[in-house]
Description:
Blueprint: E1 26-32, H1 35-43, E2 48-56, H2 65-69, E3 76-83, H3 90-99, E4 108-109, E5 112-113, E6 119-123, H4 126-142, E7 152-155, E8 159-161, H5 169-172, H6 177-193
Parallel strand pairs: 6-7
Antiparallel strand pairs: 1-3, 1-6, 2-3, 2-8, 4-5
Helix pairs in contact: 1-6, 3-4, 3-6
Family: Belongs to the MsrA Met sulfoxide reductase family.
Active site: 34
Pfam families: PMSR (PF01625)
Amino acid sequence: MMCFGCASAQDDDTLVKVPAPKPGKAVATFAAGCFWASQEAMSELKGVEQVIAGYSGGKVPNPTYEDVCTEATGHAEAVQVYYDPKVITYEELVTAFFYAHDPTTLNRQGPDEGTSYRSAIFYRTPEEKAIVQKVIKEVNASKHYKDPIVTQVSPFTAFYGGEAYHQGYYRVHQDRGYIRTVSVPKVMKMRKAVPQLLKPEFKK
């Protein structure tokens, strides 16, 4: 398990609160490796109003980053996406998710290895599960990836907000080597794959 984001003394390690979606809005939870890139990628999509970096898929309540780094809690680094379903659909979010990382590598994303870096979608309804399965079939059939998708598809149980210093990390730390060499290519990959789903300022 690589642990690139362990806090230093000056970092704010307060766990952020997780809000309920506003009336008329919806929420979705994804895991795509390091949440720094995932938070940025999903926030660039039209209709997405907020993205929180945190942890999902485990059995330990209120885990810290250091807890998750041990690989003992069962959690994956994840993002919770708050969006307007009148602007972007769940299916479009799922499609973007599959192009925002490599969903064909089991428990690994680039230099990051371990179950906390697994590719996962946490669905909330049978309808969402069916949509995920449909998109997986479509992406596999497209041969965009040479290997089949191995993303874990699991029912949503809980999402816990990560530390404050992880929120917006991608934009604040553009000078970091990890961001430049690992995170930026993932975000650029998604922009290239689904330009029609981007907010205007991220289209080229």
